[in-house]
Write a structure and sequence with these properties.
The structure is a homodimer. The first copy, chain A, is mainly alpha-helical. Chain A has 21 helices and 6 strands.
């Protein structure tokens, strides 16, 4: 353990390091990385996310940095620079050669989560008038190390306008003596520089693509977004949605890398908002203090009633939020969803009402728990359940539409948010039903 | 609209059809598909998920089926057959040529969600002793239409044992006169046939791969899993987890394609279980009927207290479930998570306690709502909030560990499930605190 770190018995394998990676702090990550065999270090470095690459580059001694910075493709480098404190950005940019620095600076102008920010400006390109065998030779000569993906070759005119595309397989299969123009596909799916990453992910998944060309307003090729970038995007977007649906702000960092203060802040914010909303239940309950005092038995069912509304609401909102994220449900579908969820709510509410009714009547006949007006109480609880569950389902399914219409993230319609929203109205429904059914008997 | 469907003005574009796709029923999908231009129909068909391809194949007239069935790679065909009613499987298998039928039948033996079921048995392969230029020529001759991805070429021995790998770019960059063996990489990441799709997705994302070779116990190549399959897997897994976290069974089909009966059944099942669990709150409340009768004011804060426990619990469980799905948190981390969440719970609970305390004291001084013992009531509510939120956070963060230890899906630790779990204990905490603090005054 005290031997110099270059001795072979100290080397770690990439797999060992990967296992530990999520739980190491920045210094330990750099230390572990330097214990990797040189041949293993390169693929390890390249497979890290931008944040990990930034940690490594900044943690390494100054003399070693240039090597690793230059290993990155321009789009990946831009991602790294975006997570580096801005004071250190210039320092790292200075390590690049002139043309690459320009490419990277151009990429930095785009938002990280849109096509321009995700794309790699280097891709395999060819001219339409080349013969197939010339094109293959040309690619062999020009395939540089940093041309990230060679899965498609893009056919561009002299003004960089995108004319067509050929997958490598198609190029290999084509007869030598035809021109690229004769064999290329012209119906290329392209995306604008400003397209959001979620939309790009949907397009790539929908059309089973390995890469998507990014073009500017004049149809000129700017770069390509590859499916491996999208795999990361999909994971990140799902994590964000899941955390929001759980009733907190998205963490943006892995659980162990999130500092305790941030963890508490991102949960505490929403928790406080929900708490303030939930205080209205105390106000609503206060409005029914008379009724509770007269019939304490009514209070016993308060948690059961309001939680049923919250549960059915959180099911409905989760369902609709995910369907919206997948493009299955759109703003225009609001009426169709309303009808379907209204029907679901009534059915689900009736099922719970019957169970609740039976429960009260059985307990009453066995233990006499609820006194002489048990049957009326059972009816009150049953009717309230139908009302609360139907209302919860409707509120849960409509809230995502409302949020999207207000240009907010539908995923904020979290289970706790919907539950809080439904709790107050659930109380009002319950006590209103009680006032009608129990008038003259218990109340 | 009444013109024969072959007239050009009736043709729809693939984009128009894609827009409508999720909301069409099976017959309409087939009808729409047949209105596509022949050249557009092929990529459209290939980009459908297995369920969509099955709908189209079964919906087309018998004479047209063979064409489309033969267009599919063996792994995709196996996926289609897996969603087709078993009675029709033989019928479709009969449309294949002998060798393909054998390949497909071999694939059908694997579970759909493991490496063997996802892999394509056709991939670009070469021998180690080939020269680079020979290898390129060989690939050009043997690249068949159905060799799904040519991104990597796999180097195999005479017994099909995997020796190394070359990306196409590496092959293109290598000098003509070297042998494949001299330029190939030997440290190939492989997966066994039985590896679960979630694990494969993690590996592909972690190492930024375009494809992963699947090998049997003897190290023989069986096929490849490509990143485009994984994009679909990731989406499906996230949807499943999100729906479970919302407190229902995963739907397995898009929202509009799920029949109403199924929709209600998959939600009603969990809703009923949660309702039965929540009934314990009525029992718990009945145990405190005396206290409520004596101090009705206590009942007013019941919804506020229990919902705070539920909200903090659902935050914690969502966080841990997602971190587990991403491999950030493992079973062995249980003690570290416990410590961290205990601390989070105490901090979050204290924040809410202070807000609750201030609220009661302010209302009291403004409206005199809570009578002479308002200060003691405020202390009761504050202490209960610390207890309930800490307990909710702990229960929410530990439940996913318990579920995984029991070999159940951690994602079943849904917000409503955790809330229900915490509601009963929340009541016990609240009334116990009340009995201690308010003894001799209100109680």
């Amino acid at each position: 353990m005290t031997a110099p770190s270059s001795s072979p018995q100290d080397l770690v394998t990439p797999d060992e390091l990967l296992e530990l990676w999520p739980i190491l702090d920045a210094d330990e990550q750099v230390e572990g990385f330097r214990l990797l065999d040189r041949a293993a270090a390169e693929p390890f470095f390249l497979s890290r996310a931008a944040a990990g690459q930034a940690t490594l580059i900044l943690g390494l001694p100054e003399g070693e940095r240039r090597l690793w910075v230059r290993l990155l493709a321009p789009d990946d480098l831009a991602d790294v620079l975006q997570v580096v404190p801005s004071a250190r950005r210039t320092e790292l940019l200075a390590l690049l050669d002139e043309p690459t620095r320009h490419e990277v600076q151009a990429l930095l102008a785009y938002a990280e989560d849109e096509a321009g920010g995700l794309m790699n400006p280097r891709y395999a390109r060819m001219r339409p008038e080349m013969r197939v065998d010339e094109a293959l030779r040309y690619l062999r000569q020009h395939a540089r190390r940093k041309t990230e993906a060679i899965y498609y070759a893009f056919v561009v005119g002299p003004d960089d306008r995108l004319l067509g595309v050929l997958s490598f397989k198609e190029l290999l299969l084509a007869p030598d003596d035809q021109t690229v123009e004769q064999v290329m596909r012209r119906d290329v799916i392209t995306v604008p520089e400003t397209m959001d990453q979620e939309e790009i992910a949907r397009l790539i998944a929908r059309h089973n693509l390995m890469a998507l060309p990014v073009v500017d307003a004049e149809g000129r090729m700017r770069g390509i977004v590859t499916v491996d970038d999208i795999v990361h995007v999909l994971g990140e977007e799902a994590t964000e949605d899941i955390q929001k649906l759980g009733g907190m702000e998205a963490l943006d960092l892995p659980y162990w890398r999130t500092p305790f203060r941030t963890l508490v802040r991102k949960r505490g914010g929403w928790l406080t908002v929900l708490f303030l909303g939930e205080m209205l239940t105390a106000t609503a309950m206060a409005g029914y203090e008379q009724e509770i005092a007269r019939a304490v038995v009514l209070a016993l069912f308060v948690p059961l009633i309001i939680s049923s509304g919250g549960n059915s609401g959180s099911q409905a909102s989760t369902l609709i939020v995910r369907a919206m994220a997948l493009g299955e449900v759109r703003l225009g579908d609001v009426i169709r969803v309303l009808r379907r969820e209204l029907a679901s709510g009534i059915v689900l509410g009736s099922v719970l009402a019957i169970i609740g009714l039976v429960r009260i009547l059985v307990w009453q006949s066995l233990f006499g728990t609820y006194g002489e007006h048990a049957a009326l109480l059972a009816i009150t609880v049953g009717l309230s359940l139908v009302g609360v569950v139907t209302w919860g389902t409707l509120a849960g399914s409509m809230l995502p539409f409302l949020l999207r219409r207000l240009k907010l993230d539908p995923a904020s319609a979290s289970a706790p948010f919907v539950a809080t929203l439904v709790d107050v109205s659930g109380l009002v429904i319950y006590f209103s039903v009680a006032q009608i059914v129990l008038r003259g008997t218990l109340l």
